[in-house]
Amino acid sequence: MKKSLLLMMLILLLGVVAACAPDREEGTDTKDGDNGTASEEPKPEKLVIWEDVDKSKDWLPAAIASFEEEYGITVEFQELNMADKIRDQLRLDGPAGNAPDVVTLPHDQIGQVVTEGLIREIEVEDSVLKTYSESSITAQMYDGKLYGLPKATETPVLIYNKALMKEAPKTMDELYAFSKDFTKGENYGFLALWDNFYFAHGALAGMGGYVFNETADGLDRDDLGLNNEGAVEGAAYIQKWYSEGLFPKGIIGESGGAAMDGLFNEGKVAAVMNGPWAFQGMRDAGIDIGVAPMPTLPNGDPVKTFMGVKGWHVTEFSENPYWATKLIEHLSNDENSKARFEAVAEIPANVALVEDPIIADNEGAKAVALQSQDAVPMPNIPEMGEVWGPMASALQTLATGKAQPQAALDEAVKSIQTNIETNHPAK
Description:
Blueprint: H1 2-20, E1 46-51, H2 60-71, E2 74-79, H3 85-96, E3 102-106, H4 110-115, H5 126-129, H6 134-139, E4 141-142, E5 145-146, E6 149-154, E7 157-161, H7 172-182, E8 188-191, H8 197-206, E9 210-215, E10 218-225, H9 229-243, H10 256-265, E11 269-274, H11 279-284, E12 289-292, E13 306-314, H12 321-331, H13 334-344, H14 357-360, H15 363-372, E14 376-377, H16 388-399, H17 405-423
Parallel strand pairs: 1-2, 1-3, 8-11, 13-14
Antiparallel strand pairs: 3-13, 4-5, 6-13, 7-11, 7-12, 9-10
């Protein structure tokens, strides 16, 4: 009898607790950054974007207007230089409470700004991630977490003067043979800034070298592949072009880029390795240019150029990360990415646009898109900052014949390792 009475009291008590509990609908308890419906997050009155200088005209106001119409949130934007000003200003304005909600940055700054607590991890649906190429999404990740969505990609390609070269060669062997025949006096068959690691990486990595080894947990800063067998083979290939007089001495060093551009724009060079940023200046010089992916290396593998990815990011200081994430999804969707390309000619990472006539029928954009498939995103961990200087020194000793590939690369890797250990203590 006592057991029955106790059981009845327990049932009644549970019923009272259930009745007093607040009514909840499934999915209404959403935290910042969770994937819920728009109605689950309170809307801010305003969101602020920092976009790159001279990159907003003719597309961003329209993209903002469609976002405002869909969500009823006012959006404002400012222009600041992306390469350095945005990052530097965010360091100041963030702690002061004046930071924007969304910024644009080059992907190789991600590791640094994450470490400094300037941008935050974002969460988006898989359907959103599938909008972009896999490599461009990889470039937006750090320590296995997503910190942005891509808006544009760039990578070096082969640019040639159609008056001097009828069509782009398919292999570097063909290009080498052409250069041996064409290079006379002040005329050169092919030029590349291979004393600059940004450009030289294509040959070193294409032969089997790498900067930091890619692991399941991200880039391993302690596993450098810049002096392995493949990298040495790539360095020897680079040195060959200099030692045989196929590259002039004037394109070595800081002034090399200007010297190379000058020779090409004067009609003295048949082809160069350069990026899409060079297209307009060449056309303005009156050169009828052709553009193609880089020819394959003597080992049959592609030139694995470095790829740069510009992205949209949510700042750590935004009080509305859910809506800021919605905004960057909107800015980088197919429609707005297409409009941005039409306005500023920066190639989007959206996979659907590769087949769109606006890209497919544009020789330069198509070449960059195709080359990007074999390109390697520049490492975005802070330790990458220790790589550029030693590699530039090594490559310049190769270009001037002052060192042999193995010795030059060994010395570079030794310097890189020392600098990493000194400036980036292990966690």
